[in-house]
Amino acid sequence: MNAAAKPGAGSAKSVDTPAFARFEWMLAGRYLRSRRRETFISVIAGFSFLGITLGVATLIIVMAVMNGFRGELLSKILGINGHLLVQPIGSELDDYDAVAARIENLEGVTFTLPFVEGQALISGPSGAFGALVRGVREPDLVKLPLVASTVSVGTLEGFDTAGGLAIGTRMARQLGVTVGDTVTLVVPRGNVTALGVTPRVKGYPVRAIFEIGMSEYDGTIAFMPLEEAQLFFNQEGIVTGIEVFTDDPDSVGPMRTAVEEGAGRPAFVSDWRARNMTFFSALEVERNVMFLILTLIVLVAALNIISGMTMLVKDKGRDIAILRTMGATRGTILRVFLITGASIGVVGTLAGFLLGFLVCLNVESIRQGISWLTSTELFSPELYFLSRLPADMDSGETFTVVVMAMVLSLLATLYPAWRAARLDPVEALRYE
C-alpha cells in the first residue's frame, strides 16, 4: 500500500492541549501586540479598551454621586426634621409636655421636640425675603447635631433667655448681618386692635450662625426660643406639633401605631417617608434611568470588541489554518481568541474601576478645579440644595457594574472566537 492510499497522510494528528495552557496565552498575547501591517486592528482594540474603561468609570462615578446625593439629602432632612411628626386633631396641642413625655418613654424613641412653626418676612441691611421660623427650646436645639455642631459664629448657650435668633450662613449672607446685628421679623396676623388685626413687626438680635451644608435650610430656617415664638405667632401655651426622633429611621412604619397610642390624645402621626415621598421617588426613578442609559455605553464598547475581534480573525485566517494543520484543535483556536477578546474587556473593566474609584475619592476637588478653570459654578447649591458634591460608592452596586462589564465583554468575544474555531484550513490556504 503506498503513502497516497493511507488516510490522513500529509496532515498532523490533532492533539488538544490542556485548556488555557501557556501556549494559548502566549499566542493571544502576540495577537494583542501590534505589528506594522496590523496597526489598524490594534487601534480598534485600543478604542474598545478605552470604551470599556470610560463606560465602567462613568457608570461607577455617576451612581456613586447619585448615592451620595441621596444620602446627604437624607441625613440633612432627618437631622433637622423628626422621623415622625405628631400633630393635634380636634383641639390645640396645649398638653404638649405630657404628650412628649409619654412618647419619649416608648421603646425605640430617642427624644421628642415640641415646636412652634410659622412663616415670616425677615429683613436686614441687604434685603428681605420669606423665612420659616421655628420656636424650640435650647435643650432640644442642642440635641440636633446638624445645628449644634455646625455653629460657626456665636453660641447657643443661653438661647432661651437671650431672646435672639439662630440663622444659617446663607441667610446671614443674604441679609448682610452677623452675630450681634438685629434683623426684623414681620407677620401679617399680629396685634388685635379696634381697627382689626395689624401686622406684627419686631426686631431680634442674631445670637448664632450655623452652616448645615444644605442651602434650603441654611437660607430659609431661623430658630427662635419656644416661648418667644408662642408669643410672636399668637400661640400662647400651644405648639404646632411634636417631632419624634427614633433609633432607626428606616423602621418608623411599625412605630406609627405605637406613637399614636402613646400620645394619649387624638393625634395624626406621619413619618418622614410620607412627607418626602415625591422627592425621594423622583430621585430613585432618576437613578434607575441613569443606570440603564449608562449601561448602554458599556454595551457599545462591548460591540466594538466584536468588530475588532472579527477583523482580527479575518486577518489571521492564514495563521489559523497553519495552526490547524500543525495539530491545533478547534478548542485551542477558540480559547486563543477567547483570551484575546476577554483580555480587552477584563483589563478595561479593572482600569475603569480604578479610574472611577480615584475620581470618587476626589470628586469635590475635581469639581472645584473645573469651576476654577471655566469660571463657572458647577453643582450650584441653589439648584442641588447641597454646598458640596458628594460621592458614596456602594460595594454591592460597584461589584454589579464590574461583573456586568466583564460578562458583556466575554459574550462579545464568543462569536468571533467561534468563527475562528470553525475556519476551514483548506479554504483558508486555497489561494495562498
Number of domains: 2
Biggest sheet record: 6 strands, mixed, barrel
Low-confidence stretches: 1-12
Give the termini separation.
31 Å
What portion of residues belong to β-strands?
Answer: 15-25%
Write a brief caption for the model:
With 432 residues, the protein is an alpha+beta fold.
Structural features:
single chain, 432 residues, alpha+beta, 2 domains, 6-stranded mixed β-barrel, 18 helices, disordered N terminus, MacB_PCD, transport, cell membrane
Report what the structure shows.
By secondary structure, this protein is of the alpha+beta class. The protein folds into two domains: 17-72 and 280-429, no CATH class; 91-265, no CATH class. Helix content is 54%, strand content 19%. The protein has helices at residues 22-32, 39-80, 96-104, 138-142, 145-148, 159-162, 169-175, 215-218, 226-232, 255-263, 272-275, 277-315, 317-325, 330-361, 363-374, 381-384, 395-421, 425-429; strands at 84-88, 109-124, 127-136, 151-154, 165-168, 182-193, 196-210, 221-225, 241-246, 267-271. A six-stranded mixed beta barrel has the order 2-3-8-5-7-6. The longest helix has 42 residues, at 39-80. The model is unreliable at 1-12 (pLDDT under 50). It is a multi-pass membrane protein. The chain crosses the membrane at residues 40-66, 289-313, 333-359, 398-418. Residues 48-260 form the MacB-like periplasmic core domain. Residues 292-425 form the ABC3 transporter permease C-terminal domain.
